[in-house]
Amino acid sequence: MSLTDARMVEAGAEIETDLCIVGGGAAGIALARGLIGAPLRVALLESGGLRFERRTQRLYVGENVGLPNYATAHSRFRVFGGSTTRWPGQCRPLDPIDFEARDWVPYSGWPFDRAHLEPWYRRAGAVCHLSAGDFEPAAWLDGAPALSLGDDLDPIVFQFGHPTDFGQTYRRELEAAANVEILLNANAVEIELDTSLREARAVAVRTFAGGDFRVRARVVVLACGGIENARLLLASNRVAPAGLGNGHDLVGRFFMDHPYLTTGHLVPADPAHGEGPHVIGTFKRVGWEQRAHLGYVLTEAVLRRERLNGCSAYFIRRLHSETAPEYFSPGGKSLAHLREVLTYKVPDKQLGRHLKNLALGYREVGITLARRAADVVRPQRCLALRIIPEATPCPDSRVTLSDERDELGMPRVRVDWRLNPDDRRGLQRLRAALRAAVRERNLGTLVDHPSEDETGWPASMMGGKHHIGTTRMHADPKQGVVDPDCRVHELANLYVAGSSVFPTSGYANPTLTIVALALRLADHLKARLGRQNHS
């Protein structure tokens, strides 16, 4: 149909459509593509434009009251294509065990198993431009053996999609679709209900130009990210004071993110194990020159026997200056954070704390700056060990609304990211298995960085910027916000797409699963609205 700048829409206008999708990132674009050609009118609302704009990005600014160094303003991108515009394309499906109700992981279990999702995983691989969905290590080793690490560890594969920016890749196709209209710079500020309070009637939209209008739809889908989905539901509280879908105080709870840890580096005995698919060479070339890389996980038998959360590890070729303990000191991490603030010119609420860390950690900051300067002249790289544990569900880890409001009048978010203490067990067991394997098989030297922060986690820990679980899926409305079809339990025509519906996080990057669930939802909505059209 068209691509429209919402700032040009007349104030007070009402746009009629069959389906309104809020959010133009991986979930929203995949869902809209899945509906091309259907006998339905689709409106896709995107808060940003075709290019990154700081004013729009500042709508993400929120308050962090949980684990340190978590900045909402820089963890997602408010632009057409969403965070796929900055995403290296790393993909892997969740493991079968991730879907199970594990008795040692409270609140675990999806309403279906991995086999159920397999058809949509295959289609999602095509959307993400993967190589035939092949995640078997032998397919990427050209006949060479995987790095042998013993009976407790399994090799796994992550693929890199190419190209990765959904906004650029699928814009023309969506623009050309006769039944899809894209509205840019359209900020959803409220989901309005009908008089029965059982159905979403319209999405209230606001722009920086000052014009408010509404999109009336038979079905509404929220696809604006794990923090923003919860924010919009909680902020739509005119007739439901606790927010929509929040009758059991679950919206915003169970917020999960993957802890990303750099816990040491490997000096390999065989240089071949520092090349090719054994490592990530550089994120600047992935998807173009490197289509996959190997990682390592504890076997399913070990996870079950020792009752552990999942965890993965892989090697990245990085500058020495970015793997040293000083780089991950409070001052070093604040220095990296402030570089990010200067890059995007979008400050956060923790600026004072970061400046204090710089002052108190002047020695570590000075060492880091000197090493970075040396790396500019003569770069020295090592095989950094990255470990990503599964963050298990924690009801007290949550997204709520703060008392502050953004430029459009929406309440800002307050994020309290927490990790269960037992989540460290998977990390510790994997590190121990890797150390033993490298030592026993004479594979080289694994140099450990044992320092911890005040939380007891490795000092290098940072959020992976994967917002998961805040509108979790469960057949029981007392245990989940959405049902197995991703419909909000309390409302007949409001759905949620994206990783906010994941009941558990696994260790894998969420995008491939986000796209698979979006395609599954597209099929469900075509069937549902098709039945309504014929009734």
Written account of the structure:
By secondary structure, the protein is α/β, with parallel strands linked by helices. It has a domain at 1-60 and 79-129 and 165-254 and 465-535: FAD/NAD(P)-binding domain (3-Layer(bba) Sandwich), CATH 3.50.50.60. The protein contains eleven helices and 20 strands. Strands 5, 6, 11, 12, 13, 14, 15, 18 and 19 form a nine-stranded mixed beta sheet that branches. Helix 1 (26-34) packs parallel to helix 11 (511-534). The radius of gyration is 23 Å and the shape is globular. The two termini are 26 Å apart. The mean pLDDT is 91.
- What is the CATH architecture annotation of one domain? 3-Layer(bba) Sandwich
CATH class of one domain: Alpha Beta
Q: How many strands appear in the DSSP assignment? A: 20
Proportion in helices: 25-40%
- Could you name the CATH homologous superfamily of one domain? FAD/NAD(P)-binding domain
Large-scale geometry: globular
Radius of gyration: 23 Å
Structural class: alpha/beta
Distance between the termini: 26 Å
Describe the biggest sheet? 9 strands, mixed
Query: What is the third-level CATH name, the topology of one domain?
Result: FAD/NAD(P)-binding domain
* Oligomeric description of these chains: single chain
The pLDDT mean sits at 91
- As a percent range, the share of strand residues is 15-25%
Number of helices: 11
pLDDT < 50 runs, ≥5 residues:
none
Helices and strands, with pairings:
Blueprint: E1 2-5, E2 14-22, H1 26-34, E3 42-45, H2 54-57, E4 63-64, E5 90-91, H3 114-127, E6 153-160, H4 166-176, E7 180-184, E8 187-193, E9 200-206, E10 212-222, H5 228-235, E11 259-268, E12 279-280, E13 292-298, H6 300-306, E14 311-319, H7 330-344, H8 351-360, H9 362-377, E15 381-389, E16 398-405, E17 411-416, H10 423-440, E18 444-448, E19 462-463, E20 494-496, H11 511-534
Parallel strand pairs: 1-7, 2-3, 2-10, 3-7, 4-17, 10-20, 12-14
Antiparallel strand pairs: 5-6, 6-13, 8-9, 9-10, 11-15, 11-18, 11-19, 13-14, 14-15, 16-17
Helix pairs in contact: 1-4, 1-11, 3-11, 7-8
